[in-house]
What we know:
Layout: E1 3-9, E2 12-13, E3 20-21, E4 27-33, E5 39-45, E6 52-58, E7 64-70, E8 77-80, E9 83-85, E10 91-97, E11 104-112, E12 118-126, E13 132-139, E14 142-145, E15 148-151, E16 158-165, E17 168-175, E18 181-189, E19 194-201, E20 218-225, E21 231-239, E22 243-250, E23 256-263, E24 266-268, E25 271-273, E26 278-285, E27 291-297, E28 303-311, E29 315-322, E30 325-328, E31 331-335, E32 341-347
Antiparallel strand pairs: 1-4, 2-3, 4-5, 6-7, 7-10, 8-9, 10-11, 11-14, 12-13, 13-16, 14-15, 16-17, 18-19, 19-20, 20-21, 21-24, 22-23, 23-26, 24-25, 26-27, 28-29, 29-32, 30-31
Amino acid sequence: GELVIAGRFAGELGLVDPPLTSLGNDDAFLARLDPQGEVLWARSFGGKGDDLLHDLAVTDDGGVIGVGALGPSTLPIDLAPGLQVSTVSTAALLARFSTADGEGIWAMEALTNDPAGESIAANVALGKNGSIYVSGTFGPNDLDFGGKKITTKGTGGDFWLGRVDDETAKWVVGFGDDLIQSGRNIAYDQDLDRLHASLRFLGAPGLKGLSADDETPDVGVVGLKASDGVPNWSVQIFGEGDATAEGLDLDELGRIRFVADISDGAKVGDLDFPAAGGDFLTLTLAGDGAVLGARHFTGPSEQESEDIAAVPGGCAVVVGSFNGDLVEGPTTLLSAAADQDAFVLLLPP
């Protein structure tokens, strides 16, 4: 029943007394809460730039794996006594922390070879036998992930995935072209020994036929081999306007549950979803990418999803915010009491 939370803050963060204090712009924080929400411990780390943790995963032996980004800093950043990291550009961070006190145990960075470049780790998933999978965005120029290197396909930013075994990078792969590709979510399917990932992209990132040829980004979900990151299949959400991947998870039936925000309508295969403004879609996919179901949530104003999580019984929970009414088909599900209300939706199997 305990929780571990992470994020970023500036100034002071009053989780503990005395409060955590940032050393630069934004610093990363990590905290452990008991089942009643009381803070057991909290710690922060950072340098002179913007530092944050994007995502966490808890290992079977109780460790915490965190991913995020470190901003450029002229000073080393202390994750624990004797464990320091430093970077001259924005660098992706992968680290293991102790659940006893939040101290860093080991850390690995993904660095570009250009001081003006940046790399970000957005999501983490745990695989068999302690394997760790990371997804994110990098560019321009090369990326060095624990000694494994890839070269960017362009100048706009590429999608990257990496695997770590026993604190050592096993492989790293990148996908992109001259436009923008941004890694979003990742999940590991133990039954198929496969990765499922999502991205937001323009152009043709080289992922099983994904291609956005207009001026607004589309969204893709891809299946990749866990052994080497080679793609097996892809599903594309063709947005009439902007589209953003917001969340991806695997339910206990082995299906992929995915949510994306769209504007001005979207298409998925033969399915067409007209929209007047900001809406969101949920998709249920088989492990081979086959579309098993789709739901379209709309309304007279803006509806935005934030994330999706699988829960027992093959169900999924979506969270987000909305203005006015939240509508599915002819049914008004919720009506906002203020300009912007939060929502929680439980989706059946």
